[in-house]
Amino acid sequence: MIRARDLSFAYPGGPPVLEAVSFEVAAGGLCGVVGANGCGKSTLLALMAGLFEPTAGTLTVRGEPSPGRGGGVRDGVALVLQDPDQQIIGATVEEDLLLGLPPRDARRADEACALAARLGLSELAAPVQTLSLGQRRKLCIATALRDGPEVLVLDEPFAGLDYPSALEMRALLAANRQAGRTQVIASHDVEPFADLADAWLVLARGRLALGGPTEAVFPELRRHGVRPPSAWRPGLEVPRWE
Ligand SMILES: Nc1ncnc2c1ncn2[C@@H]1O[C@H](COP(=O)(O)OP(=O)(O)OP(=O)(O)O)[C@@H](O)[C@H]1O
């Protein structure tokens, strides 16, 4: 579903941020992208969502290559940014949630509102500036899921979420997997979703240090600045987070 071949990227005028990264994410998989601050996680996710194009190498998402025909990668991929304030456009919860929906599509509007309510956002008239950081993050997640994207790319989705919301987030991820959606989650903390992911990409200073299934990756995590889940022990399955 997602394939990178020798992917490199540099912001204009800057040094390489990603260098010769190659990997595959299987359709319907849930892949964790982890690594220390500044290793390139958010940049890689932005490339997957078509916000940028590789400066060298290729990235293919849903069969659409990047660099490639304009905007192809963007179709069918939803990205939830790390900073909700860079994503929210509407003035109220409802306005942001329904932005871009056909005005008379009551069914989709109802579904979007139900999704927001699942995440604890039932005050649709609330101005967005009155929401807490966690609530703004939930609004972005609801808006991203609203159109049923084939690929969902989430940057630090658990950051700032309280315990019930983290459980709800986990339930959403599990439901997405059940529905066959491909998911990529960037995080510096694997704890809240370690038992849900089936593959990992570990970045270190812009390079792919390690990739593969949990049993191959977790024993090496600490070496790359990432703490394994507290209840995990080598040779054992990752215990369910609850
Ligand atoms: N818009 C930008 N312009 C120039 N450089 C940038 C930009 N965004 C990120 N960078 C640089 O790219 C590198 C990777 O940043 P990125 O945000 O992708 O890392 P990250 O792994 O997501 O970090 P964190 O865990 O802190 O969120 C960093 O050196 C950062 O300074």
UniProtKB/TrEMBL annotation:
Could you confirm whether the keyword DNA repair appears in this record?
no
Which UniProt keywords are present, listed alphabetically? ATP-binding, Nucleotide-binding, Transport
SMART domains for this protein: AAA (SM00382)
Q: Which Gene3D superfamilies does this one have?
A: P-loop containing nucleotide triphosphate hydrolases
UniProt keyword annotation of Nucleotide-binding present: yes
Question: Residue ranges of the ABC transporter domain?
Answer: 2-230
* PROSITE patterns linked to this entry: ABC_TRANSPORTER_1, ABC_TRANSPORTER_2
Which top-level group of life is the source organism from? Answer: Bacteria
One GO cellular component from the entry? Answer: ATP-binding cassette (ABC) transporter complex
The record's section on Pfam families has: ABC_tran (PF00005)
Q: Name one GO molecular function term.
A: ATP hydrolysis activity
Similarity comment text for this entry: Belongs to the ABC transporter superfamily.
Protein name as catalogued: ABC transporter
According to its UniProt entry, this protein's organism is Anaeromyxobacter diazotrophicus
What lineage does the source organism belong to? Bacteria, Pseudomonadati, Myxococcota, Myxococcia, Myxococcales
